[in-house]
Design a protein that fits this description.
372 residues, alpha/beta, Aspartate Aminotransferase, domain 2, Aspartate Aminotransferase, domain 1, 2 domains, 41% helix, globular, binds pyridoxal-5'-phosphate
Length: 372
């Protein structure tokens, strides 16, 4: 039973079919002959489809190899674009490492980072307004947090930037957000740049995308043959793009309801058992449920489930080897809640029956191995 869908997801049947078919379009999309043109057409069809889900124009969407690359391209590009005016970067204290580590790297080039609290999964808008009283090159606020599922108020961030006149570019890491919340498309319209990744929604790894608002000309982060209108050189991954589009097309409102039903069952079962903390922000995607299973260490619970073939995680996959989660600390969890935190990643492929089995397995693990 796979409940680690915030780490990655199984490619759907439609995504695999689209991928396999597009592998047949082996031409280089930049080649003028018929094989190249066929590949180009498939690439542009995928771009049009994905941009309709993002809520942007097709010519505002650039393919990358990952969400990480999309974040890097946006952040280094925006900094280069704006840093002659100011080197201040404002970001939340719970960004993904593919955002935070870029900003840390830019500190070596004179950037000043200002962190905005996200206690209880709520972006502190007053602190943001205060930070924006001085000029800023860039504001990074993620669409949905990868550990708590928190959906931050991008619309309020846009308003704060416009009101302040600070001139910052608004970058939004929407890797966990795209298609995962009914408000997401509206929120994403407020971002100047936004990062996406296909493997979080049942497409394969190796393909991501970056939205860049029309009129904003960012310098490239990767140089070479000038593909993707010069922003991201490198021969395009046509099969990956086709699979991304196919998987996105399947992520309907109906699928969101099925994720919600599984989540509600889990919450009900665990609430009835008691002594469980729900690290749930007021506004969240339903696909990420963070709990503290008091009485048993996260790792012990993980291992007890893993030997039964049930997969969940303690925090994010990338921070799992780095000790306690800084995101959950920023959320405001105390030691006992941190030590027993678990992240359950729910996808439309999970069922209510699986939710019951997962709840049983978690509670049995606590009974058997719980000590702390
Ligand atoms: N941003 C967030 C919020 C994520 O959860 C992840 C992946 O876990 C990334 C960025 C990086 O995406 P990718 O794995 O495609 O590089």
């Amino acid at each position: 039973m796979y409940f680690d869908n915030a780490a990655t997801t199984v490619p759907s049947g439609a995504a695999v079919r689209a991928y396999t078919e597009a592998l047949g379009l082996f031409g280089n999309p930049s080649s003028p002959h018929a094989a190249g043109v066929a590949a180009r057409e498939a690439l542009e069809a995928a771009r049009a489809a994905i941009s309709s889900h993002v809520g942007c124009r097709a010519d505002e969407l650039y393919f990358t190899a990952s969400g990480t690359e999309a974040n890097n391209t946006a952040i280094f590009g925006a900094f280069a674009f704006a840093s002659r005016r100011t080197k201040r970067i404002v970001l939340t204290d719970s960004e993904h490492p593919s955002v935070e580590e870029c900003v840390k790297r830019l500190e070596a080039f004179g950037a000043e980072a200002v962190y905005i609290p996200t206690r209880s999964g709520i972006l502190d808008i007053d602190a943001l307004a205060e930070a924006l009283t001085k000029p800023a090159a860039l504001v990074c606020v993620m669409a949905a947090n990868n550990e708590t599922g928190a959906v931050y108020d991008i619309e309020a961030v846009r308003k704060a930037i416009d009101k302040s006149g600070c001139g910052a570019i608004l970058h939004c890491d929407a890797v966990q957000g795209l298609l995962k919340h009914a408000d997401m498309k509206r929120l994403l319209k407020c971002a100047d740049t936004a990062a996406f990744s296909a493997h979080k929604l049942h497409a394969p790894r190796g393909i991501g995308a970056l939205k860049v608002r029309a009129g904003l000309r960012l310098p490239p982060h990767i140089y070479g043959g000038g593909q993707e209108r010069g922003l991201r050189s490198g021969t395009e991954n046509v099969a990956g793009a086709a699979a991304f589009a196919a998987a996105a097309g399947e992520y309907t409102a109906e699928k969101l309801l099925s994720v919600k039903a599984v989540r509600e069952r889990l919450v009900k079962r665990l609430s009835e058992a008691g002594n469980v903390g729900f690290n749930v922000p007021p506004k969240h995607i339903d696909g990420i449920l963070n709990i503290s299973l008091f009485g048993i260490k996260s790792e012990t619970a993980l291992n007890a489930l893993s030997v039964q073939g049930i997969y969940i995680s303690a925090s994010s996959a990338c921070s799992s080897r780095k000790g306690q989660s800084r995101v959950l600390k920023a959320y405001g969890l105390e030691k006992a809640a941190l030590d027993s935190a678990l992240r359950i990643g729910i996808s439309p492929y999970n069922t209510v029956e699986e939710a019951d089995k997962l709840a049983d397995a978690l509670l049995t693990a606590r009974e058997r191995y719980g000590r702390i």
